[in-house]
Amino acid sequence: MLRRTWVIVLAWTLLATAWALAGESKKCNLSTQDCLDQMATKMKTYGWVGVELERNEETGTLTVLKVVPGSPAETSGIQPGDLLYALNGVRIIKDNEEALTKARKDWKPGQTVNYTVKRNGADRQVALTLAPMPADVLARYIGEHMLEHATADLAANKEAINKEAATK
Ligand SMILES: [Zn+2]
Questions:
Q1: pTM of the entire structure?
Q2: How far is CA 58 from CA 3, 30, 61, 99, in A?
Q3: 108-144 pLDDT, tens per residue?
Q4: How far is the CA of 29 from the centre of ligand 1 (A)?
Q5: Ligand 1 midpoint to CA 26 (Å)
Q6: Distance 153 CA to ligand 1 centre (A)
Q7: CA of residue 139 to ligand 1 center, whole Å
Q8: Distance from the CA of 142 to the center of ligand 1, in angstroms?
Q9: CA 6 / ligand 1 centre spacing (Å)
Q10: 4 Cα–ligand 1 center, Å
Q11: 146 C-alpha vs ligand 1 centroid, how far in Å?
Q12: d(Cα 78, Cα 18) in Å, to the nearest integer?
């Protein structure tokens, strides 16, 4: 499967962390408590756009699937189906991963960022001001990730029990 859906705010956070969120294949190596602390701290200070995106794994291009009502993305006029073509002048493609990470370095609430968006073949410039992540969105992301921890912990427990049973 070449395409999968993920949430941009997380994927961008993930570039620099060990978190395994929203379908990322990387495993999270933190303990449940450490992870929870880090997520709560980091995500509170992280700038929120309010889009869910589909990423083409081959090319690295991003297409908007959903725009969260009341988000900076909605205010700026971004619509589902838009292709996010460039961020602050940097083409959003796989080869530019490093430059994009730099462009997202100070990804904080209050910061203004500029996207070039392609819609029906036409370019449009979109400026938006990153917002703090709403509490319910934050809670949902953390909840989903903690579920992954719970599943992993459960699997580890089962394995330990099976091992013990096998040695008896
Ligand atoms: Zn974790």
A1: 0.71
A2: 8, 29, 8, 18
A3: 999 999 999 999 989 999 999 999 989 888 888 888 8
A4: 7
A5: 10
A6: 11
A7: 14
A8: 9
A9: 16
A10: 20
A11: 7
A12: 30
* Cβ density class 50-73: b for 16+ within 10 Å, e for less: bbbbebeeeeebbbbeebbeebbb
Residue matched to tokens 């756009």: 49
CATH architecture assigned to 3-167: Roll (2.30)
**Tens-place pLDDT, residues 17-38:** 333 333 444 568 888 888 888 8
Which residues neighbour ligand 1 (ion) by CB within 5 Å? 28, 30, 35
Q: Tell me, what amino acid is at 29? A: N
pLDDT at residue 147 is higher than 50? yes
Q: Helix H segments across 28-134? A: 32-44, 72-76, 97-103
Centre of ligand 1 to C-alpha 147, Å, is: 9
User: What residue spans define the domains of the chain?
Assistant: 3-167
Position 15 confidence tier, pLDDT thresholds 50, 70, 90: very low
Tracing tokens 């450490």 back to the chain, one arrives at 34
The answer to whether 114 touches 89, Cβ cutoff 8 Å, is: yes
